[in-house]
Amino acid sequence: MDARAIIAKVRDKENPSREELTWFASGLASGAVSDAQAGAFAMAVVVNGLGDAGRVALTQGMRDSGDVMTWDLPGPVIDKHSTGGVGDCVSLILAPVLAACGAYVPMISGRGLGHTGGTLDKLEAIPGLNINVSEKQLRLMTREVGCAIVSATGQIAPADRRLYAIRDVTATVESVDLITASILSKKLAAGLESLILDVKCGSGAFMKTPETARALARGLVDTANGAGCQTAALITDMNQPLSPALGNAVEVGICMEVLAGDATAAPRLYDLTVGLCAQLLMMQGEDTAAAVSKVKSAISSGSAMERFAQMIAALGGPPDMAHDWHTHLPKAPVVGEVTAPATGHIVAIDGEALGLTVVGLGGGRKIETDRINPAVGLTEMVSLGTAVTRGDPLCVVHAADEDTAVEAAMAVQAAITIGDAVTSGPLVIEGIT
Q1: Which of 12, 15, 225, 317 is the most exposed place for a label (fewest CB within 10 A)?
Q2: Catalytic site residue 80?
Q3: Active-site position among 81, 161, 162, 214
Q4: What pLDDT digit, counting tens, does each position of 302-360 carry?
């Protein structure tokens, strides 16, 4: 087969066959498809789509481009995936919580895409960590700790590893077909029994409207269930950052506060994590009240923190992370407040602009070879509906130097609208099964 012919079909709004898409996915993994061809294919899919059958075929082809794992464990093998948002560090809390509840979570994660932060980039803010483990190490950690948040091994969905990096730097992230294939190829290759999807909707998400978020959620759920993995989705609000911290080390820090039992450190982050964990336990037969109680107890008792610390140590990180995370997380040399330019209420927050502000500080990538500065970011971010007086803090900037701090402060002020009072919408908009 010829990659050019397949690209031309998508360009001309023709649907490639299952065999062609399977071949293309294999070519991404083997190198038979070049970077230029992969980028052209991604752009054609963004513009014209693949159709339902094509989306399934690409997903399964990318899954089958490497190994597909099977498990024999004394509990359910389950996981969660978010479509990407700003200040979304749920995974770092959810995986150890579920492990503390008796489940097993082999979480194969990704890096930042566009304006959204990546779970692996956040984890790598912890010194000494190595998220590139072998399948044998992934299996051992999952069995012994109960959770493992790692990069896809060379044998797990290698086609996605290649296309993921190319999408990040070619403005081809926002596609239901490509997002579905990327998420599910890794998750299905991990051999999951159940999967919960957190489909973000709003200014800080790739899907800006409920309609587009619903279409993505439905496509993901139908594709995953059709492939034999019990899957449901929650459509959740991303019209403001999920946590008050945006950036790599600062998001790890806020997760540590929540795992230490302080739900007030990030109420929206805590509430959504509890909801997603409970939904997964309910998919395993727990009733709602018991599931919520079990999840909250895993956090308040410290057992989830213990699992997180064990996972970090197993990945080569500090053995005392549970008790001394403040010492280990890197800190930016320039820290300063961004103040409100007017008096009123916070009526709108451009989450995508805030995410790009973190990228501009050095907390994300503009090109594939960029090195991330884990220490930079924004903290103490104001929330929708908050009353402010001119000069009140909107957030705190953590920067590498004064110039980028000033640029970030201006970007934050431009991203936040101050006006009359407004009420924020519900955190969970709807469920899809």
Answers
A1: 12
A2: yes
A3: 81
A4: 999 999 999 999 999 999 999 999 999 999 999 999 999 999 999 999 999 999 999 99
